[in-house]
């Protein structure tokens, strides 16, 4: 892509998170799209949704 030494995959993920948060997408949907794991282990154990339909809107 031409970004060797200037950009990292983590930097691109941070950029995506920032832009999506600025567009007022639900934080849970953003985190699911970025494959982040919920830090709240109890919530994570009970919330098994993948937010697929809402993530499709986010990705479009």
TrEMBL record:
GO biological process: DNA integration
GO MF, one annotated term: DNA binding
Top-level taxonomic group: Bacteria
Keyword vocabulary terms for this entry: DNA integration
Family statement drawn from the similarity comment of this UniProt entry: Belongs to the 'phage' integrase family.
Protein name (Swiss-Prot/TrEMBL): DNA integration/recombination/invertion protein
């Amino acid at each position: 892509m031409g970004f060797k030494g200037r950009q990292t995959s983590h930097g691109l993920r941070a950029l995506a998170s920032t832009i999506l948060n600025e567009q007022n997408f639900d934080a849970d949907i953003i985190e699911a799209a970025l494959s982040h794991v919920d830090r709240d282990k109890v919530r994570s154990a009970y919330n098994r949704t993948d937010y697929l339909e809402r993530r499709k809107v986010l990705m479009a």
